[in-house]
Write a structure and sequence with these properties.
Keywords: Signal
Helix content: under 10%
CATH class of the largest domain: Mainly Beta
Largest sheet: 8 strands, mixed
Number of strands: 32
Strand content: over 45%
Mean pLDDT: 88
Distance between the termini: 124 Å
Low-confidence stretches: 5-19, 475-482
Radius of gyration: 30 Å
Organism: Caenorhabditis elegans
CATH architecture of the largest domain: Sandwich
Structural class: mainly beta
InterPro entries: CUB-like_dom, DUF7591, DUF7592
Pfam families: CUB_2, DUF7591, DUF7592
GO biological process, one term: innate immune response
Number of domains: 4
CATH superfamily of the largest domain: Spermadhesin, CUB domain
């Protein structure tokens, strides 16, 4: 008898959990205000857990208004799960104080941030089976550190500012500030960019420009009206540290209408194609890698237009090469060695093929190839080695090297080796007492070239050289031409 009774009680409990009453939304909206005790978060529905969100009935609609007082912000952890749907529209919308709308289809404990005066979470289930819930915690701004960053219009390598929890930065430029952002390595970290806030001035009372995520997905630039800007990070995830903000003087970027990017996890080659549409104006593609990652290699270009490559930001002094995207075969593959490389496309449309394979730059498919080698960040260098192969089965290839810049101050050295398989055919070593001839062609013979640059550890260390790969007259060709000469002489 006890067993049947206990089973009946368990049945009643399970039924009550399944049919848990959904909060009414009689006015079409529910308002959430900051509690007196900030340690007490607000949960909707009551008792919400992200591991088992409440199932809401069909055709349930409600606008959840989250108020945020001045000098506060709110962190929302949102969970949405659709168990059945034939509807292509999102059941949830997140709307910030500037009326920017994000469509949310499915997520678990995803972070959203609202600043003064607040924002809205809108739910409309329709005929879908939607599980839904969120938590809200309000807090005051408590920045441990305020940094100050100045840069000039002529800076070739623009500041790359990486956010950290409880930190903000005041930026000052010569004229106006352009801020763009590169993506973190994984898409799951995008959510934390909502906590990166941009203000048009030096305080949080200045005009609010938007979030880091809006900047990234909008493929745009935030521009200050004066020469100062404030960037604050109100989240607690260190993932944003892998998504640096690129700061430039707006006079250098004002002709660019769109900023593209490549999402590439640290441990992947990321072979892929980037399409650029220049019909409405110039388009920039910003490539970023940290010093422990392989940099991007451009393998192929198609289309109609001009592609300018800048080592760092967009300034006339650091333009390193220009491609006609319809005729670039002999200039590829080309690795872009700097921490930040900006490609600016002007024209109709272009298709660019990239990879981060370690050996992609080494490969040469045909004679006549031209390219360049530069130190990492071209003026902010670490120990580096470069390797270039001749086309397959061509052991007597000619490598022509022209050194444009080589900082060999202090203990810095530059060594160029050329091999024919395992045979060393030539070695040249340069240092502060034995400087290389600049803008002069140096010729090597073999089937691969190896270059080592060991800077002295200062930010001034830099190397830039151009190379050409040409076909050599082989021994069999020499014998053939000798026979022809003898034949003509005798007959």
């Amino acid at each position: 008898m006890n067993i049947y009774f206990l089973a009946f009680i368990a049945f009643l409990i399970s039924q009550s959990e399944v049919s848990c009453e959904v909060p009414q939304c009689e006015k079409g909206f529910i308002i959430f205000d900051k509690p007196h005790n900030l340690l007490n978060g607000t949960y909707f529905p009551d008792g919400f857990k992200s591991s088992s969100p409440q199932l809401f009935p069909d055709n349930y609609s409600c606008d959840f208004k989250i108020n945020v007082p001045q000098n506060y912000f709110a962190t929302i952890q949102l969970t949405v799960n659709i168990t059945s749907s034939n509807n292509k529209s999102a059941p949830v919308q997140a709307v910030d104080q500037m009326q920017n709308v994000e469509q949310v289809f499915s997520t678990k404990s995803e972070s959203f941030y609202f600043v003064s005066n607040g924002g809205n979470i809108k739910l409309s289930t329709g005929n879908r089976k939607v599980q839904f819930g969120f938590s809200i915690f309000w807090d005051t701004y408590q920045f441990i550190q305020t940094k100050y960053l100045n840069f000039s219009r002529s800076a070739t390598l623009p500041p790359l500012y990486s956010n950290m929890p409880d930190q903000q930065v005041v930026i000052t430029a010569d004229t106006r500030i352009s801020a763009t952002i590169v993506p973190p390595g994984v898409k799951d970290s995008f959510q934390y960019l909502r906590g990166v806030l941009f203000f048009d001035g030096t305080t949080r009372n200045s005009t609010y420009l938007g979030t880091g995520l809006q900047l990234l997905t909008g493929k745009s630039q935030y521009v200050s009206t004066s020469n100062q800007m404030l960037i604050s990070y109100i989240g607690d995830s260190w993932a944003v540290n892998n998504s640096p903000i690129v700061l430039q003087d707006y006079e250098n970027t004002k002709s660019i209408c769109k900023f593209e990017w490549i999402l590439c996890p640290d441990d992947q080659d990321c072979d892929g194609i980037v399409s650029l549409d220049g019909t409405k104006g110039s388009v920039a593609l910003q490539l970023y890698h940290n010093k422990f990652e392989t940099s991007f290699v451009l393998n192929k270009t198609l289309g109609f237009g001009k592609l300018e490559v800048f080592d760092g930001g967009v300034t006339k002094t650091n333009l390193i090469t220009t491609y006609d995207v319809n005729r670039s075969e002999l200039n590829l593959p080309q690795e872009f060695f700097g921490r930040l490389t900006t490609l600016v496309f002007t024209g109709e449309t272009a298709s660019l093929t990239f990879t981060r394979r370690d050996d992609a730059f080494d490969e040469t498919t045909s004679f006549g190839r031209k390219g360049f080698i530069s130190s990492d960040s071209y003026g902010n260098s670490f120990q580096e080695a470069f390797h270039i192969n001749a086309p397959v089965k061509n052991p007597d290839t000619i490598f022509k090297v022209n050194i444009a810049t080589a900082d060999l101050s202090g203990s810095t050295t530059l060594i160029v080796y050329c091999y024919r398989y395992i045979e060393l055919t030539r070695e040249l070593s340069f240092n502060s007492t034995n400087l290389p001839p600049l803008n002069t062609t140096i010729t090597f013979h073999g089937n691969f070239l190896h270059i080592e640059y060991y800077p002295n550890g200062t930010d001034s260390s830099k190397l830039f050289l151009n190379f050409d790969i040409e076909k050599s007259v082989t021994r069999s060709s020499e014998f053939f031409f000798a026979c022809v000469i003898v034949f003509l002489f005798l007959f």
